[in-house]
Amino acid sequence: MSGGRFIAVVGPSGVGKDSVMGALCKAMPDMVRCRRVITRAPEAGGEDYEPVDEDTFHTRAKRGDFALWWQAHDLFYGVPNDVHTHLERGCNVIANLSRSKLTEAQAIFPHFQVLSLTASPAVLEDRLAGRGRETASEREKRLARASLPLPDGLAVIEIDNSGALDRSVAAARDALQLASA
Question: Is the pTM for the entire model greater than 0.85?
Answer without folding.
Answer: yes
